[in-house]
Amino acid sequence: MSLAVPAGCAGLAKAQPASVEELLVGWNGTDDLWVFAYGSLIWHPGFAWRERRLATVRGYHRSLCLWSHDHRGSPDNPGLVFGLDRGGCCRGVAFQIAACDVPAVFEALWRREMVTGAYTPRWLACHTEQAPVRGLVFLLNRACQEYAADLSDDRLLASVRNAVGHSGPCLDYVVETEKALRAHGIDDWRLGELVRRLGLQPC
Fold it and tell me: Which UniProt keywords apply (predicted)?
C-alpha cells in the first residue's frame, strides 16, 4: 500500500477527495487501515475495530473551533465541536480497521464527517509506541463556514453551556470527550481547564 503523507499544512493545499473511492485510491484491498480519533470518535466510534492504540499527530492540535447547528446546537443557538487546527500536536487514539470492514466503515465515516465540508480528510503519520502508522485524519477546513475563529472566552463558554442539538447538549459532548481522554491517560490541559471553567471538576 502506498499512501502519501503530507508534511505539515501542505496537504491542505491539495484537492480534497470527492468520494470514499477517491480517498482509497492506492489501497490494495487487503491491508488493514487506521483512523485517528481526537474527539467523539474516541468514545463513540460507531464502527468495528481490530486494535486501538494511543497515537500522536504532529502539526495540528485539538480545538473547539467548529460551529454545530445540528448535532450539538441549533441554527438559533449553535454549539461547538472539535477540529484539528494548525500548529502543535494532538494526542488521540488510532483505530485499526480490518480490511474486510474498510469499505463500510469508511463510507459511514464519510457520511458522519463530510456532510458540511468542515473537515478535510488526509492520510497522516500517527505516531504510536509500537511504530508509526498511516491513518485517516479529519483536519479542520478553515475555509468552511462553520469555522469559529477568535471566539471570546465568554462566548465559547456560553455556547458550550447552553447549546443543544439532535445528538444532545454541547456540554455533554465536551465533558464526554474530556473524560475519554483521561480514561486513556491523555492529558489535554486546555480541555481540562475548559471543563473546570464550566464549573465541572474532572472526576
Answer: Lyase, Transferase
Rounded to whole angstroms, how far apart are CA atoms 27 and 34? 12
51-68 and 79-97 strand pairing = antiparallel
Sign of CA dihedral 33, 88, 43, 73: negative
What cell does 58 get? 504532529
The mean of the pLDDT values for the chain is 90
How far apart, in whole angstroms, are the C-alpha atoms of residue 99 and residue 83?
27
What values do phi and psi take at 89, rounded to 5? -150, 165
Q: In this structure, which amino acid lies at residue 77? A: N
128-187, pLDDT tens digit by residue? 999 999 999 999 999 999 999 889 999 999 999 999 999 999 999 999 999 999 999 999
Q: Which cell goes with 120?
A: 478535510
Give the mean model confidence (pLDDT) for residues 29-45: 97
CA distance 148 to 151: 7
pTM for this predicted structure: 0.89
Give the separation between CA 100 and CA 29, rounded to whole angstroms: 8
Domains of the chain, start order: 20-194 (3.10.490.10)
